[in-house]
What does this fold into?
Amino acid sequence: MILMGIDIGTTATKIILIDLDGRVVSSTEKSSTLLSQKAGWAEEDANQWWENVCRGIPDCLQQAGITPDRVAAVGVSGMVPTIVLLDKNGKVLRNSIQQNDARAVEEIEYLRSKTDAADILRRTGSAITQQTIGTKILWLRRHEPAVLERAAHLMGSYEFITHRLAGAFYLERNWALESGYFDLYREDWDDEILALSTIDRNLLGPVYWPSDVVGAVTREAARLTGLKEGTPVVAGSADHIASSFSSGLKNQGDLLVKLGGAGDIMISLDEVLVDHRLFLDYHDIPGKYIASGCMASSGSLIKWFRNQFAPHAAYEELDSAAAAIPAGSDGLILLPYFLGEKTPVQDPLARGTLVGLTLTHSLAHVFRAVLEGISYGFYHHLKVFEEHGLTPTYARCANGGARSALWKQVTADVLGIRLEQVADHPGSSLGAAFCAGMGVGAFSAWDEIERYIKISSVTQPDGNNHARYQQLFGLYREIYESLKDKFPRLAKISGQM
It folds into this structure.
């Protein structure tokens, strides 16, 4: 029996096939393009995701010599909560609006002014932030009303691909929870917030758990992808949750640092934790939760830096040069808020900032400062976890950035914790494939994910570097606090608001 996992990521669409013995038997990636046409904007072409899937599935099957009839089920993971709007015929009406998009500044303030922040947080588990779906719908209502008038379905990234595969219109529980529309305790849409956001319930499909089978591969999807018509498809999972689960996070205090396009840091919980500085998610394992920190730019910031300032250099070359620079980058501190910032500062107008430049600094200094700035963002979340008495039982790292020994070392040094790297970890696509297996009874227990998890290396923190970084983290926080009232003025000048 073979299971397929598809992940719709910021920079690539990844497809894997797994067997039931703990092996990834095939994988392929197709590039995606993040579009940022204006300051704070983050969009993608959902049709490109589907084209990637249609090209990637045949490649993945052929690579492993797997015939379509051997694929028992398909699961999809992806960025959350993105916005994909379809008309009544299922046509995509505009580019997706990504979860890290920061355009809806005025709409955030409007919703906050019309609600009790503490009550909204208690009811939905989510503060009103740049990630709240309602703020972006209000922005569309103001700037692109014709799009909303034609919209018949609202969904996220992985729900869209599942729709294309199986024809289902639905929403997965973590899209619902992170949207800011979903009542955490009634487990239903909150009509008051829907009304304030001008959202019709009819745009929102039924809500399912990740392993729920929502449909089967249609004849048209089979023709386009090479899958067998009738193959079961499950609801799928938020990418960071699928990645957390498939990295081994199961028990209270298990921690994952996800070095991906966005920077995620997650801690597993046995019960609900509500804090306006964090996102609360359902675990893929029913009855458990994950407190999530999600930074708007991480790997995407590293990619931007390289493309703009060292386009002909390999990442390994940049790492090698930056590794020769001492911890602290000789007095450089970078705020990694290049797309505003989500957690923990929740400031869509925040800007990327580099402080401390002198004529002695080189490209390598700045590149190291980029890595350190991202790591300070992770550490900020760790301090929030500590306020709730949460101490990591262990910490793991995953995603593409884990291939960089320097990024891992800087992260371990700033956090002051030992990082275990999951060997050859396929990321969220593995969690999606496992959810598919649970949906069709290929696995009997969630613990069976352990057969897929192997630790390839351990990065130990350097105590001296950690002590230095703790001092610099204080400056990092002071820099933001001293500049945050200047960012709105810059936003007005640049036309962001």
Observations:
- The longest helix spans residues 363-387.
- The chain has a mean pLDDT of 95.
- The radius of gyration is 22 Å.
- Residues 86 and 92 are 5 Å apart (CA to CA).
